[in-house]
Amino acid sequence: MPESALCIERIEQAQERLERLLAEYQADDRLTPVTVVVPSTYSALHLRRDIGRRGLVNVQFMVLPRLAELLGAPSLAARGQRPLKPLIESAAVRRAAGQASGRLEPFRDHPSFHSSLRTTFRDLRLGGSNALLTLERRGEIPAEIVRLYSVSRELTKDYYDREALADAAAETVANGEAAALADLGPVIAYLLRDLTPGGRRLLDALRKAWTCWTVVGLTRDSEANETTLGSIVPRGIRLPGPEELSSPLRRESTLLITSDTREEVRSVVRDIASAAHAGTPFHRMAVLYWQRDLYASLIAEQFAMSGVPTAGPATGRLASTPVGRMVKGMVDLAGGDLPRDEVMRWLTSCPVKSAASGFRPSRWDAISRDAGVVGGIEQWDERLARYARRQEQAANGQGDDIPEAKLLRIKQTASEAWSLRAFMLRLHDDLSPPADGSAWRGFVEWVEGLMSRYMDTASLPRTERENLEAVETSIRELENLDDVEDGTTLDGFRVALEEALGGTAAREGAFGEGVFVGSVGNAVGLRFDKVYLLGMVEGLVPPRFRDDPLLPDDDREPAGLPLRQGTAAERYEYLAAASAGLAAV
């Protein structure tokens, strides 16, 4: 008989309850499989390491989308459906945007319109048919957005997204057809929050047809708890107020005031170094922030300068890595007149290889400047050739009294000029893209050829090799766009490549080997000795509310769609992060 129950704890005490449940399930047989569904991959890593020190056998930790994939993907694959990749989704959005009419027609080809439309479509996906009908009745822009959404859904009807995956998993569990559950064992939903409708249906199905316990973590704010955990708690169950639970452990809290963000981060680095000297391991400390654009790169820079190891979510994008810049630089140069400043920026900042011996991009930069090259293949050809001949003539015209070192330098300059000329002539030919209207596969093969000829893979460090693999995978996925679009142009390929390189880059430092650095939301379900919460300034925390330009909250609320103004949920994350450490700064 399936057994399911709800455990409500203060979030600081939730892990103890989880450990007791694991001990109860494995009391008779330590090899009994148990699956814990966690709020994030970092929560899974933390629990595996922390509980594992006290003994952990045959317990899996996974996020809810992964569980849905295990349970629902086989049935969807049997129907001939494939997973909806972000690039396919974006292509469908672009095609739908191309049919915009009325007040939205002028924005058909604008990238910002495509980005906003994709975000809005994802929210519409969670609203159901009633929400679409409500928006249609409001007319004008809301009705047009619903029409474009229908176009996008039709284009992706052969693909399944996360919501469809969760629904398929829920149906499989409810029908008793989820064979994978036997290998998963009892399921514990641990500190989940803000489930989508499909995620909630899956959790409800597990509670009814399987052994599924739910561990809910409460903060000291009742409103934040109700808003954030309403989709987790079974209908009809009231969440207790914070005062109704046992008192939490007293935690130390310190306020640090600095003149600016740079000094704020430096002060944190100094404090972490002092704590480490006093005996606190780096992996028992965390630095959390709200404003990624303001803090992520600054924290990475200051910690790298200090030599303090870090771990956590990657802050960089593939496009900003040397490998990403290399690929994007070649595609940006294609179809143009090869401006000298852009070519040299690409050569000097990317891992480019050349057949020329003693290849030095900085020398090529100086030589092309001295030769008077501005841009255009004719200048690269003629002016470099003329410059090289002048150098050769200068070398041949020198007397016997010329120092040998100077003579060798002149000859070397001439040789380097000829090498640069040959490189640019070959690059110009190789950068000729497929004709407009060619298949996506043709553009992908073109870029792969460029990478093979010009990428200096031998010089890449370990982290960059990981980035190279990610870039190659992202580029190959562009071939799938042939399923939804009839060819593309060079400009269209550039847009898609920009998105493909928007994925996160590899991160140096493994979890548990350095100071955890991430956003406030990453800390839910983690535990540290000391937590630093950066940027706690009025006007920045909580982040400023930004309404949806296509479907503002005034249109969303009557339709029952997620609202952009989510201060209660953000407060839950803040309180959970503050309680993740025995001390908070």
Description:
The structure is a single chain. It contains 23 helices and 13 strands. With 585 residues, the protein is α/β, with parallel strands linked by helices. It has 4 domains: 4-75 and 163-244, 3-Layer(aba) Sandwich (Rossmann fold), CATH 3.40.50; 85-155; 252-315 and 508-584, 3-Layer(aba) Sandwich (Rossmann fold); 320-500. A 6-stranded parallel sheet has the order 8-13-12-9-11-10, covered by helices on one side. It has a 5-stranded parallel sheet with strand order 1-7-6-2-3, with helices on both faces. β6 (187-190), α10 and β7 (212-218) form a beta-alpha-beta unit. The longest helix has 27 residues, at 404-430.
Topology:
Elements: E1 4-10, H1 14-25, E2 34-38, H2 41-52, E3 59-63, H3 64-78, E4 82-83, H4 86-97, H5 111-125, H6 128-137, H7 140-155, E5 159-160, H8 162-174, H9 181-184, E6 187-190, H10 197-209, E7 212-218, H11 222-229, E8 252-253, H12 261-277, E9 285-289, H13 292-306, E10 310-311, H14 322-333, H15 340-349, H16 361-370, H17 377-396, H18 404-430, H19 440-454, H20 462-477, H21 490-500, E11 515-519, E12 528-533, H22 553-559, H23 567-578, E13 581-584
Helix count? 23
| Strand tally | 13
Strand % is 5-15%
Give me the Rg, rounded: 29 Å
Helix content: 40-55%
Structural class: alpha/beta
Summarize this entry quickly:
With 585 residues, this protein is α/β, with parallel strands linked by helices. Helices cover 52% and strands 10% of the residues.
Summary tags:
single chain; 585 residues; alpha/beta; Rossmann fold; 4 domains; 5-stranded parallel beta sheet; 13 strands; 52% helix
